[in-house]
TrEMBL record, chains A, B:
It holds the Pfam family SnoaL_2. This is Nuclear transport factor 2 family protein. Keywords: Signal. Gene3D superfamilies: 3.10.450.50.
Length: 158, 158
């Protein structure tokens, strides 16, 4: 099971990278945003938000509005993280709404996850939906749906 | 690629069915709802909605509120459909929010899809998010994210 998923992810990641120039403009913008987001590149990330941008984790019912609050939250959430990556399994868009299905790989200190002093390594399945204003190339809404049960199961064994 | 996806779907479907009793209550309720929804069982479906229930296709930006409007829309949308099924690839929940990643298989008359007089057979990747009121077991929000580009590509070749 795990092997098939892995093969699938590798295959999909490869084909996604191979054809990046052929992607719809909205998906290319989404890839640039996700790169800044997972690289903790807050300088680039700022240019994707404005005062009306919304960051919404629908599964956790957590919402932040505006560049400053979103960046503050991400700075806190990503603190000390060694590696953060989104393995894309499927991506599609309808106009300026881009949907990314995949899993977030996170390696870092376990302090925020009830594992102080340990390095944790988890892969959390999730769906990220990005709604852009294509005129200004800013995020109107970043919405996450995350499989926190799988995350908890993985943490338990670490 | 197609074969691996198919194997994945079969495996997931099987394991989902095998363990239905072990599922969290919210996911069991989601399965009952999806069954009524894909079976066009409007009698059962009515019991899942109330006047505040929202049906929201975020990708198409279409929203209906209340039992009557939702049922009217679904009656129209499902008219004449011969087969409608959701192949679940991954399902998870956080409390009363259930997220289902999979693809909707639809076989039916092509009249609504620009193929009058033909029978079409498509599988549309999508994410369905259900938010329940677990007290009343009603839908607060049914939100769809659908890969309409893949749907259009499949329709083109039929």
């Amino acid at each position: 099971m795990r092997l098939i998923s892995l093969l699938l992810i590798i295959f999909m990641s490869f084909s996604a990278h191979a054809n990046i120039g052929d992607m719809p403009e909205e998906q290319q913008l989404a890839m640039q945003y996700i790169k800044a987001y997972t690289d903790h590149d807050f300088r680039s990330l700022r240019h994707f938000y404005n005062r009306d941008s919304v960051f919404f984790d629908k599964t956790a019912n957590v919402k932040y509005t505006g560049t400053r609050h979103i960046i503050e939250f991400l700075t806190r959430a990503h603190e000390g993280v060694l590696e953060y990556r989104l393995n894309i399994e499927h991506m599609f868009n309808n106009g300026s709404i881009v949907v990314i299905i995949g899993s977030y790989r996170l390696r870092g200190p376990g302090d925020q996850y009830g594992k102080p002093g340990r390095i944790i390594d988890i892969a959390v399945p999730g769906v990220t939906t990005l709604k852009f204003d294509m005129g200004t190339r800013r995020i109107i809404e970043h919405m996450d749906l995350m499989d926190y049960q799988t995350m908890a199961d993985q943490l338990e064994s670490q």
